[in-house]
Amino acid sequence: MEKNILLIFLSPVKAKDGKISETHYKNLDGENTHTTNESAVRYLLKNISADEKLSKIFILASKAVRENIENYSEKITHLEYFKNRMKKFLPNVENCITEETIYNYNEDNDGEENLKSVAEMARQIQNFTAKSNDKIILHADLTGGMRHINMMMLDIIRLLEYSGLKIGKIIYSNYNLKKNLGTVEEVKNIYDLFQLISGVEEFINFGSVKVLKDYYKIHSEKISDALKNLLSAMENFAEAIKLCRYGQFKIAIEKLHDAINDFSADENNLNDILMARLIERIKNEYKMLIATRGNDDLKIIRWCIEKGYLQQALTLYTERIPEYLGENNFYKISQQDYKKLLEKTSNDNRNEAFYFLNNYLTYNGEAKNSQNQIEPTEEIKLKNLQTEMANYFQKINVMYFEQVKKYVIPAIRNKNFSYDDWQKKFFENINLPVDWLPHEEIFADEEEICRSLNLLNKLKNSPQILLNLSNPELDLIRPIIKKLSAEFEKNPKGFQRIKKILEFVETSNVETLKKFFPYFKFKAQIFRLQYMLEKEIFSLNVDRKIFLQIMERYFRLKDERNHSNHARNDIGEFETAKDLEKCMLDGLDEIEKVEVK
Question: Among residues 103, 141, 138, 151, which one has the least CA distance to residue 123?
């Protein structure tokens, strides 16, 4: 069952020579009205069925209407008169208007107090709806009160609508002073303009059309073909975002480009006129995607990031970057291996560039012929070398942090630490299993480790930096600061805090240190690409180091996508959405800046 409730701002009763002034409303049957709000109540009763009676009237009552009526023969307040008058039309008026439905409003309030009044009236209505198991429909009369009251009434309606309440009729009593004639008008279509604007805003900010669909369900009459085409293109685009299917997304962007640029408003069609006032905003916000009809993968990914669609951006980054690199001549595959690549991808829908950079020469477990020993395939050779290198770099990580504990921290304590000198000696003593692999291409995290240890050295000499723990300079060791927060509260001085940090590093084991410092994350995929470059399976048209940096970031993001897609229990590399967003944006910037020979 449905229950109807009405929200009004009570207007004062007009009286002259001891009598109440009356007004005739042409769309109300029977006697003249005695109060402005009476017209709204009677109109509402006329337009709802008998079994959907008016359950409650919520009243914003100013100081003026809580005082006695001037120039009237009886001593009675405007509020009391309205309530008495309603008995003629509402048999249940005592239940309909109660202390709980009346809010005493002070018209002398300032802006902030007005907002508090809005919140309080919304709370009173919510309290009523929370006690009812029926479907509640809120109607509103916007006629009464001072000029700014309409804004307050709309605020209350919007608050309640967003809390889940259904909005029914919005009424305005229009009065012609010369003719002494009134007309009760429904102005819900004007209120609904807020929903149209909200719908466009939702599409701009989030690529969603839910609110727009709700709006046009109500205003479905006279939708032009151009507007239908635009709404269809917007809905297809929204669906493509949700499903994140690149082919569908690409087509949806092209259709959106066409529909937006083809839209021309019929000046006799209200729906067209309103959309024409909003479409420039859509064009401006979507210009990254629809400036041209062709699609740019980097712009699509960047748009998804800016709109907060990080999972879609991550999927597109993982699936599309390899093809983007191939299409834009970042590399060239040898003719012999290109033929092999075509054979490997001929029986499925895998993109050639994606397969090449992700899977080509990946060991697939081919068995050797035990009776007739044959030369190991490139895949087997690579697998053996990958295993050797993985074990090797695991040892390097252990060696590195052992050196940090045994040499670096004591040196920092004595204030004579030079990372550059120590680093040079450390890496000079490392012999790589292959002589064609420059060490700067492997130790991608070395610079960050260097900056972290140099920061410890700086803090030892300038411990006052640790007095302000929110200092961005400390971000490099932020995990350690969080770990030792309780210790820092007990030791508020800078020199005490650096002492605690150094003690923590010195006494932690290697696995613990890996959680708080960057370490050498050997990537088998990067090594595979280096191997393929060495064997001239493919060549580069861009700087080798930059290409491997791009791919190293790509494999990190791909690993993150696997973590989220497969709902793994372990935590991926990126602790926050902001970290992931930054990594993808840095990657896009990195790719866009590359000079292709």
Answer: 103
**Nearest residue to 241 via CA among 320, 314, 312:** 312
Write the CB contacts of 7 (distance below 8 Å, at least 6 apart in sequence).
Answer: 58, 60, 121, 125, 138, 139, 140, 141, 153, 156, 157
> pLDDT per residue over 414-444, tens digit each?
766 676 776 666 666 666 666 666 555 555 5
Q: Which residues contact 204 (CB under 8 A, 6 or more apart)?
A: 281, 282, 285, 286
Q: Are 208 and 202 in contact (CB under 8 A)?
A: yes
The one-letter amino acid at 503: E
Nearest one of 269, 267, 232, 270 to 251, comparing CA atoms = 232
- Cα–Cα distance for residue pair 355/202, rounded to 1 Å: 37
Return d(Cα 583, Cα 428) in angstroms, integer.
31
Residue 536 is which amino acid? E
- Asked if residue 556 has pLDDT above 90, the reply is no
pLDDT tens profile 50-74:
555 889 999 999 899 999 999 898 9
First vs last C-alpha separation in the chain: 73
- Identify the three-state secondary structure at position 166: strand
Q: Token match 């102005």: residue?
A: 187
Dump pLDDT digits (tens) for 290-333: 877 767 889 989 988 988 889 999 999 999 999 999 999 999 99
Which residue type occupies 135? K
DSSP codes, 401-454 = HHHIIIIIHHHHHTT---HHHHHHHHHHT---SSTT--GGGT-TTHHHHHHHHH
DSSP string, 60-98: EEETGGGSBPTTBSS--BHHHHHHHHHTTT-TTHHHHS-
pLDDT in tens, 126-165: 988 888 888 899 999 988 665 567 788 888 888 888 888 8
d(CA 282, CA 203): 8
> Other CB atoms closer than 10 Å to residue 100's CB: what's the count?
11
Alpha carbons 189 and 171: distance in angstroms, whole number: 11
Tell me how far apart the alpha carbons of residues 544 and 533 are, in angstroms, rounded to a whole number. 9
Cβ 358 vs Cβ 565: under 8 Å: no
Cα–Cα distance for residue pair 38/86, rounded to 1 Å: 7
Identity of the residue numbered 296: D
Q: Of all helices (H) and strands (E), which one includes residue 548?
A: helix 544-565
Would you state the pLDDT for residue 367? 41
The structure tokens 């005592």 sit at 94
Least confident piece of the model among 9-18, 379-388, 421-430: 421-430
Give me 35's structure tokens: 């109060």
**Cα atoms in the 13 Å half-sphere on the side-chain side of 368:** 12
Cα 57 from Cα 93, distance rounded (Å): 9
Task: Give me the phi and psi of 486, to 5 degrees please.
Answer: -65, -40
Report the chain's C-alpha Rg in angstroms. 36
The three-state secondary structure class of 29 is coil
Average pLDDT score over the chain:
83
The C-alpha atoms of residue 37 and residue 172 are separated, in whole angstroms, by: 9
Considering Cα of 563, then 569, then 572, then 578, what sign does the dihedral take? Answer: positive
- Percent of the residues in the chain that have a pLDDT greater than 90, as a whole number: 28
* pLDDT band for position 206 (cuts 50, 70, 90): confident
pLDDT attached to residue 525 = 77
